[in-house]
Design a protein that fits this description.
single chain, Double Stranded RNA Binding Domain, two-stranded antiparallel sheet
Length: about 200
């Protein structure tokens, strides 16, 4: 065991790296700096993860190509409503409550060849969207129900399995699947590029 560790240290000190032919070393290397506007770093992480999962690209700090991305639009719109309910008999009244939204993010991406300093792709725009539901915390009927047979109101949050949230939190939670969608679209575009 000691001899194996010594051999590995000697080989790594000489600049040798163990690799399998046809693996990431044979593929284009792409550097992915932080996406401009990605405050949490989650979009950048999703993008690097997707590129590495494809097995066609090797992401590294010193690469021939740099994938530059910038968030240029982050839209939130209301897409779903329901009737407000009033009283214990749940009569509908003519007032709608928002319950569903859509978040759309648009990125501008480009790929630069670091050896020549020229763009080999872009700038181009990539957009994706995701829908999300939320509970309206302005009304007690959205937060509690009266159990069969009467009694004190019971909070619905205990039964929601984490799916009911305020609009701000629902918009934040929607970012993970949205970033994954954007990453897949960008990786598909890179697959189509001849790097």
């Amino acid at each position: 065991m000691k001899a194996l560790i010594t051999a590995a240290l000697l080989l790594s000190g000489c600049g040798y790296r163990l690799s399998t032919p046809g693996m990431a070393a044979d593929y284009p290397q792409v550097s992915v700096p932080y996406v401009e506007g990605d405050v949490s770093g989650l979009l950048t992480t999703a993008l690097v993860r997707e590129l590495n999962a494809r097995g066609r690209f090797s992401t590294t700090g010193r690469a021939r190509y740099t994938l530059n991305a910038k968030i240029i639009k982050d839209d939130k719109e209301q897409i779903g409503w329901r009737f407000d309910r009033q009283g214990t008999n749940a009569d509908r009244i003519s007032r709608l409550r928002p319950t569903e939204g859509k978040r759309t993010i648009t990125l501008q991406i480009s790929i630069e060849d670091n050896t020549s300093g020229k763009l080999v792709f872009g700038p181009s725009k990539v957009s994706a969207d995701v829908d999300y539901d939320y509970v309206n915390f302005d009304t007690i009927s959205d937060l509690a129900f009266t159990p069969p047979g009467g009694g004190a109101p019971v909070s619905v949050l205990a039964f929601s399995l984490g799916q009911l949230d305020a609009v701000e939190d629902a918009q934040t939670v929607a970012l993970a699947p949205l970033y994954q969608k954007l990453s897949k679209l960008i990786a598909d575009g890179l697959d189509a590029c001849d790097l």
